Amino acid sequence: MHSSARSIKHGSFMIERKFEQDPAVVYRAWTHPETKARWFNGPPDKWKEEVREMNVRVGGRDRLVGKFADGSESRFEAQYFEVVPEKRLVYTYDMYWQGKKISVSLATVEFVAAGRGTKLVVVEHGAFLDGYEDAGSRERGTLTLMDNLAREIVHERSEERRVGKECRSRW
After folding, report:
1. d(CA 154, CA 20)
2. How many CB atoms lie within 10 A of CB 149?
């Protein structure tokens, strides 16, 4: 999986996902720290969050560090270059494994109004460094995160409806 040779390999992917919720809801799930923490993470039975920092603005940074059950550590460090609320995010990020930088990526996320819902378009261009063989794992991981996001949006909307009903019943 890893070698000591200095090298670089490139990979790209695009994922489109349709959500019934409008772009404001999907954008909020991506940019609100507490909400994103519920879906943008490692496998709950194998990974534990150690550090999470998030500042979604041009020049802002995200940082997420976690450890797996076997003690291995992953680190995600991002910087935002464009933030257009409810429309798009453009950021770069570095991934580290056991303290070693394994990749640098450019990511774009578009929140496109589609009827009463949203078409989410995630595009990523990665440079995989010094023998790290991605073999599609970044795309598979992003697909898993999109599944997590979908579950979170449905859960959050059902919570809003529940709280709204409780408030209305008090009046």
Report:
1. 9
2. 22
